[in-house]
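Predict the structure of Zinc knuckle CX2CX4HX4C domain-containing protein.
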Amino acid sequence: MEWIDRLGKVLVLTEDEGEGITLPTHAWIGNKKWRDRALNGGPWIFDKNLIILNYANPDKNPLEVDLNWCQFHVHIHGLPLWIMTRAMADFIGKRLGRFIESDSNQAQFMMGAKVRIRVALDVRLPLKQVLVLRSPEDQELLVSLTYERLSTFCYGCGVLDYILRDCGRRLDNQPDEEEELQYRP
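Done. Here is the predicted structure for Zinc knuckle CX2CX4HX4C domain-containing protein.
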């Protein structure tokens, strides 16, 4: 039980916009590397549920900490080689949420079948599966998106908060086996 006492001194549990965990900034005063790894190294998943961690200012109320954004790695598929650039990764990342970095932050051009970026996403919004990009010549380019390390999410609407059976957006009169789902594992 000693570890529970120590845990309680480090973690503050909140109930703002669902369940979340807030770590006070003084929790790891002596080890900034571990604090940053815990806060930015996720997404963290426990029992198939997403755990969102964020910095907490010791002078503020823990209920005011924003627990609606979580960082994910996103794979962008279908980009032609000539636009697999750091600038395009930044542009797409900003269309998805808050762009953090790309795997090729040092290189001007990227090579491979996909571009991998890290983006903070608003977990209250549905996940995007595709993006339509327009060229200066007004041509459309459809790129598909896949996500790494997703927690349980709704295959009906794409929100990370709940699973399909708890979704309030799906049609109640459709049996599950006949329902066409927008998302898949």
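The helical segments are 2-10, 32-40, 86-96.
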